[in-house]
Specification:
The chain has 1199 residues and is an alpha/beta fold. The chain contains 37 helices and 49 strands. A hairpin with a 4-residue loop joins strand 42 and strand 43. The chain binds one RNA strand of 87 nucleotides through helix 8, helix 11, strand 29, strand 37 and helix 24.
RNA sequence: GCCCGGGUGGCGGAAUUGGUAUACGCGACAGACUUAAAAUCUGUUUCUCGCAAGGGAUUGUGGGUUCGAGUCCCACUCCGGGCACCA
């Protein structure tokens, strides 16, 4: 019975074997090139793995396997990122120690991970909660604590190199140094639940309320450890150029860091010494600053509270703002709020105007300086705010429109300046507007009435005059001015001059009645006036300026954010935005009112957590000495074992309650001191774990320099998009820091970063325990096997996309594997084919010295290249024929000569067998008769005396022997007949004269060769042989199509794995399988390069489905694991398609397809295409304008 | 709201980067095998007009560039991810 595919039976077996043989262990140092691929190490949660976790593991596993098979020394490690909130919360809930929770979770995760057969090197397993690991996390923290950022060298250095001003006293000195450390303390607001009296993570704040008890969350300011990542902001952006990250990852990081160049400007406060510093990217709009806004947290408010006459109101507002999230505060869609600080005024340094100061929560304390200069005309948020509170909006930048196409400025034409008004005229009763169609001029413009403003005339007067002249209507009124001022540069064809510049504004006029006077001819010579319905105006107008005016009239005014030309800016008027920025910064610097500045959105990293389950911060707090770092020899500072790890009600870490642990002598002065009780965030351990994998058991260093040098950087790092801005940035920061201090040798940790997409639940929702839609991989493996799961996760869609799980699609993968399994029954491993194909020549040696036999065999094998023994070596001596049967003798001969000569060899042994003599074969050979046929005949006749049965047959056994593989194949032919009484005919051929075959009424001796061959036994055997050889060849030729496809598949699979396009790699393997299934046989002849089809297929599939391929590989008789084989390389010649389908298009539409040779020339293709009936039909009576030919693809006929 | 992605059959998706849109898989339908069912195998399957030959439409919507657009440009719309104490 055929064995069925049973993954449950084979997968566990192989997993155990791979583990035992350690085939995935990465060697430190090797002659092979190294390849370090990495997945983000998992957080071992209580929920266990779900299928989404596996996606990246499997993907990188495939790459690891493929690289390993391609000759790389691959490291693919795994470990546990085990500190953090979920474990702590679970521990509190279940009253289990987080250590135990973690241990159990890791155990479960390990079991789950092992069950899908990834090729992790388990010998390097790490765990961030292991004191041996977090010793080094603490060590790095202390390095940060004891370092400062040297701006001149643009790198971090040991704090001992810091230049400390001499004139400071001890306390000031300490404060100065502490202020420069890369790990420092600062007052920061954290989320706080006043009811539970604990600090909350952002995630625990749901709709501004505590997740647990529902009480509204507050902000509480506490001292927090911070890491000065902002010092690295510029390098974190710049060095992105040196790494291969997905473009979107780079963009997201760049945006997150948010570098913006601009200026710092200082505003004086009237009658007071304090100044307000603001950062702006648009110093050119300084003249448009009509008020200022401070963030509610800005310390000036507290400072000037005596001067602020409405301080109570302000205080209330600040209180309210405090508990809003940044998200709520900066939401553009939300109503702006704010309070004016009455009693104080700021002075705009540009024009010395007094402007009001407001406090509003749309300004954040954490960005820039926590204060802004508000320019409502050119900033959206300021605009909204000013509108709401009735603040002045002053335009200082005019849009500049530059004509394009026909309107483009012409160098050879004169430039003229003008001031014009656009006039929008509304009909007196209908909702229609008067527009101009410039069809009579060369301009193609469609606009409103437009006219010049004469000297001494106001815009309104000009508008009224133009409206009357052009429209002919007489009674109208000015309603309002629309928008501000704009500039334009364009070529005016009707006047044949450049308009350089046009200064333009817009007046809106309504007609009062229909009193009308025919306009003068001169007014209408360039255009016609028409009334356009309101809804159609937008599409009718084709010039930018009137379009904008119309938009303002319909939708109201907006701020203008783009660059343009300066106005209302005194001496700077007329400058472009870029010029203005340069000039104003010069001016500010000169007058000591500001300077050029760069600002980042990136903020320093808040590093403290008031929780138990994290790395203790190895700092001692001494009243006298300040913050003192532990000595390296005192690391790790172990997390104390406690019964109660619940949060305290003071907002302090649970560690604060453990007096024994907290109270300590100061390492410096030996006085009473306390330990820092905050712990590190989960991000700490994950910021450097990839370094620990290199040397996980090292007690002296976090990793040895040699190993760092050999393995770093990580060649491929995979992780979710959700880690792009935090973990990825944090770990790059730490790595750069370690690089600055020469602990690592690469400035960047990861050479290449890729991202996987989420697996959604079957309902398209995110998988989550609370939704109850989680798919558990264990169940899938149990039912379908790990290989099916692996294949499905890779096939389901593009690796980077979020895709819903589908159990029914999963079944398709199981079917695929079953078909792979069943294909083994078609595999052809016979040796003959191998020799035949491998030699590529049809030379066959006939192993006989018998000239008659030789002639016969040569006759039968006309199509083959035959040589005889005589042709190669006359010295060869015949072997002893000591076998009993034709088969044995034939084999002895064939083997002997084949081995001697190395040729594919044919030998024949044949003879007459007579029934009456018990059919003894070979008995009557010529040797038996000692060469004398007459004597032999007589002897035979004598033995047959008294026997009635004259039935006999000739038999021939032909052996084809392949000396390379030591294998052979035999073919037998029989000719039945009877012994006749007297020899008849030519007796020169052994027993022929006495044998008469059935169906022939003469003896063989009487026949010509031609006649004899119809009945001949040897001919029959040879025919079988020839048929076999031809069949092999036919199959081989048929397999050529497979051969081409195979090489195309190797190419596709290799490239797709490289590009993480696993879904199409699998699809191409499916296409190959489909094709192979159509074949009668699939070759698998290891000796023959063209005959390894099945092996190659299995190897290609093995990184995806390691278990089934390993099993089939073994079933084929291989001893060594398939995963240690080398990955096939494709032959570009073989991968090429010889014949292609050329597409014929008419005007870009597919009309015909022609099969042609791939390298067909343009002329030939044209000729063939134009002669096609289908094509003739389409081009009949039409003029061929152009023919476009794309080699190997298509031909497009344009008619 | 801001930043980053994305939108192609009934479904997941493919398309060598501007050149045959819908590969591959799922599902569905029909047939073979079976007492029957399941499994398996074979065929059909974007929509639409047509008996057929053949035609027309179609990659979220609208416009543009091009001999030719899923792919490039502009505007809109809808969906997903991130937003700094979840990891």
């Amino acid at each position: 019975m055929m064995q069925k595919y049973n993954p449950q039976k084979i997968e566990k077996k192989w997993q155990k074997k791979w583990d035992e043989n350690k085939i995935y262990k990465a060697k430190d140092f090797s002659n092979k090139p190294k390849y370090y691929c990495l997945i983000e190490f998992p957080y071992p949660s209580g929920a266990g793995l779900h299928v989404g976790h596996l996606r990246s593991h499997i993907a990188i596993d495939i790459i690891a396997r493929q690289k390993r098979m391609s000759g790389y020394n691959v490291m693919y490690p795994i470990g546990w990122d085990a500190f953090g909130l979920p474990t702590e919360n679970f521990a509190i809930k279940t009253k289990t120690h987080p250590k135990i929770v973690t241990k159990n979770n890791i155990k479960n995760f390990t079991k789950q991970i092992k069950s899908y057969g990834p090729s992790f090197d388990w010998s390097r397993e790490i765990n961030t909660t292991d004191p041996k690991y977090y010793k080094w996390t603490q060590w790095i923290f202390l390095k940060l604590f004891n370092s400062f950022y040297d701006q001149k060298l643009d790198k971090a250095r040991d704090i001992k190199y810091l230049d400390v001003p001499r004139d400071l006293n001890n306390l000031e000195k300490r404060e100065f140094i502490d202020g420069q450390r890369l790990a420092y303390e600062a007052e920061m607001a954290i989320n706080w639940c006043p009811s539970c009296k604990i600090g909350l993570a952002n995630e625990e704040v749901v709709n501004n309320a505590c997740e647990r008890c529902g009480a509204p969350a507050e902000k509480k300011t506490m001292k927090q450890w911070m890491l000065r990542i902002t010092k690295y902001a510029n390098r974190l952006i710049k060095d992105l150029e040196t790494v291969d990250y997905l473009e979107k990852i780079k963009t997201q990081q760049v945006n997150w860091i948010g570098k913006s160049e601009g200026a710092e400007v200082e505003f004086r406060i009237k009658n007071y010494e304090s100044r307000i510093r603001v950062f702006t990217t648009r110093p050119d709009t300084l003249f448009g600053c009509t008020y200022m806004v401070l963030a509610p947290e800005h310390n000036l408010i507290e400072e000037l509270k005596l001067q602020i006459t409405n301080y109570e109101e302000v205080k209330k507002y600040i209180q309210k703002a405090k508990n809003k999230s940044d998200l709520d505060r900066t939401d553009l869609a939300k109503e702006k709020t704010g309070v004016e600080l009455k009693g104080i005024k700021a002075i705009n340094p540009a024009n010395n105007e007094e402007i009001p100061i407001w406090v509003a929560d749309y300004v954040l304390a954490t960005y820039g300086t926590g204060a802004i200069m508000a320019v409502p005309a050119h900033d959206e948020r300021d605009f909204e705010f000013a509108k709401k509170f009735g603040l002045e909006i002053r335009q200082v930048v005019a849009p500049l429109f530059i004509g394009e196409g026909k309107n483009k400025i012409r160098k050879d034409k004169k430039n003229t300046k003008r001031t014009v008004v656009d006039v929008i005229i509304k009909h007196w009763e209908k909702d229609e507007y008067f527009c101009l169609n410039w069809s009579k001029s060369k301009n193609d413009w469609k606009s409103f009435v437009v006219g010049g403003v004469e000297k001494g005339e106001s815009e309104e007067e000009a508008a009224l005059r133009e409206a009357k002249e052009e429209s002919g209507y007489q009674n109208m009124r000015v309603v309002k001015k629309i928008g501000g001022t704009t500039y334009s540069r364009f070529f005016a064809a009707h006047k044949d001059v450049n308009r350089h510049d046009i200064k333009r504004s817009c007046i809106y006029i309504e007609l009062l009645d229909n009193s009308f006077m025919e306009p003068k001819e001169e007014e209408v010579k360039n255009h016609d006036g028409i009334w356009i319905k309101k809804g159609e105006v937008k599409d009718f107008i084709n010039l930018q300026e009137p379009k904008i005016h119309w938009d303002i009239l319909q939708n109201g005014e907006r701020s203008f954010l783009k660059d343009g030309i300066a106005m209302n800016s005194e001496q700077f008027n007329g400058l472009t935005t870029a010029e203005f920025k340069k000039e104003i910064i010069k001016w500010l610097s000169k007058n000591n009112l500001g300077r050029k500045a760069i600002n980042y959105k990136l903020r320093d990293w808040v590093f403290s957590r008031q929780h138990y389950w994290g790395e203790p911060i190895p700092i001692v707090k001494c009243d006298k000495c300040g913050n003192i770092s532990l000595k390296e020899k005192d690391l790790p500072l172990k997390l104390p074992d406690v019964k109660n790890y619940e949060p305290t009600d003071t907002g302090e870490s649970p560690l604060a309650k453990i007096d024994r642990w907290v109270n300590i002598k100061c390492p410096k002065c030996n006085g009473n001191a306390k330990r820092e009780t905050d712990t590190m965030p989960n991000w700490a351990g994950s910021s450097w774990y990839f370094l620990r994998y290199l040397d996980p058991k090292n007690n002296k260093e976090f990793a040895s320099p040699e190993k760092l040098k050999y393995w770093m950087p990580v060649d491929l790092y995979n992780g979710g998009m959700e880690h792009t801005t935090l973990h990825l940035l944090y770990s790059r920061f730490w790595h750069k820091f370690l690089f600055d201090l020469n602990y690592v040798n690469t400035p960047e940790p990861y050479a290449k970063r890729r991202s996987h997409g989420m697996i959604l639940a079957e309902d398209g929702q995110k998988m989550s325990k609370s939704r109850g839609n989680v798919v558990n991989p264990d169940k899938v493996i149990e039912k379908y096997g790990a290989d099916t799961l692996r294949l499905y996760e890779m096939f389901m869609g593009p690796y980077g996309d979020a895709i819903p799980w589908s159990t029914s699609s999963l079944i398709g993968m199981n079917r695929f594997l079953e078909r792979v399994w069943n294909m083994k029954n078609k595999v052809e491993t016979r040796f003959i084919a191998s020799k035949f194909i491998a030699s590529k020549s049809k030379t066959i040696l006939i192993a006989t010295n018998n000239q008659g036999k030789l002639k016969e065999l040569k006759d039968h094998l006309k199509d083959f290249d035959i040589i005889s023994l005589k042709d190669i070596d006359k010295e060869i001596i015949e072997p002893e024929e000591n076998g009993k049967t034709f088969e044995e003798n034939s084999l002895i001969k064939a083997k002997y000569y084949a081995k001697k000569t190395g040729y594919l060899t044919i030998a024949d042994d044949s003879g007459l067998c007579v029934n009456a003599l018990n059919g003894r074969p070979g008995v009557f050979s010529s040797r038996y008769a000692e060469g004398d046929y007459k004597k032999a005949h007589q002897k035979l006749f004598k033995e047959l005396e008294n026997k009635k049965d004259r039935y006999a047959y000739f038999q021939s056994v032909v052996t084809l022997y392949d000396p390379k593989n030591n294998k052979y194949e035999q073919f037998s032919g029989k000719c039945e007949g009877k012994i006749i009484d007297k020899p008849q005919g030519n007796s020169g051929f052994g027993y022929d004269p006495i044998f008469m075959p059935d169906g022939l009424n003469k003896s063989f001796g009487e026949c010509s060769f031609e006649e004899k061959y119809k009945y001949d036994h040897r001919k029959k055997a040879i025919d079988k042989l020839v048929k076999h050889l031809n069949e092999v060849e036919t199959r081989f030729i048929a397999s050529k199509t497979i051969e081409i496809l195979l090489h195309q598949t190797i190419k596709k699979v290799s490239e797709d794995i490289e590009n993480l396009k696993f879904n199409t790699a699998i699809s191409s393997l499916m296409i190959l399988l489909n094709e192979m299934e159509k074949q009668k046989t699939i070759f698998n002849i290891p000796a023959c390069p063209a005959g390894r089809q099945y092996s190659i297929f299995l190897i290609l599939l093995s990184p995806f489905a390691p278990h089934i391929t390993e099993e089939l590989w073994k079933m084929m008789g291989n001893k060594e694991s398939i995963h240690l084989q080398s990955f096939p390389k494709y032959n570009p010649e073989l991968a090429k398609e010889k014949e292609i389908t050329l597409v014929v298009q008419i005007n870009g539409k597919l009309r015909d397809q022609i099969k042609v040779l791939a390298d067909i020339s343009e002329e030939e293709a044209k000729k063939i295409a134009l002669e096609r009936e289908k094509i003739k039909k389409w081009i009949e009576g039409k003029e061929i304008r152009r023919i476009i030919f794309v080699k190997g693809k298509l031909i497009n006929i344009v008619v």
